[in-house]
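Appendix B. Raw example, untouched.
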Amino acid sequence: MDRLLVVAERLFSERGFSSVTLRDISQVLGLSHASLYYHFPGGKEELFIAVTKRSILRHGEALGSLLDENSEDIRSRLHKAADWFLSQPPLDLIRMSQSDMPALKPQVAREMMDLMYSQIPLRLQSALQKADEEGYIRCPNPGLVGGALIGMIESFYSMPDFALRSPRTEMAREMIDILLKGLGYTPNPASGSGAGL
């Protein structure tokens, strides 16, 4: 079952809900098309929902532990969050909101988007707001900055390998440092993470 979810997640993240069929998934797994209905009687939509919820909750759990780490300042936490995002199959939130979710039943799509918001953008927003309140950055709109940060990190997935001047994680960290500089970042002296910014 786990292999089924991993394969389905990879295919859905690469091509989106509408472009993947159960036959595509069953071929990669070497299973009969009908056997997928044993695990997911609701078909492709039920499988997509299960895979997407699993991915969102996995991201939320990781971001929760990375962003709530009190022993490190906001720069280190954001670097680790970017590393996490880039180590996972892309969520492609733009495609998800503009293409995948409209293909689902409206109530289901709303629930999925609410879950996504609570697990990912809201966690970044809270971390940025806390850093602002503690005086490490000046961030009057942490929701906007958190959303932009997700979009920027996700954009590194779409860069072809030949266009990379360094690994994606290094580029994401550099972009975060530029963003933090614009937010008037002051390192937490106890963390020692501001060196080189």
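End of appendix B.
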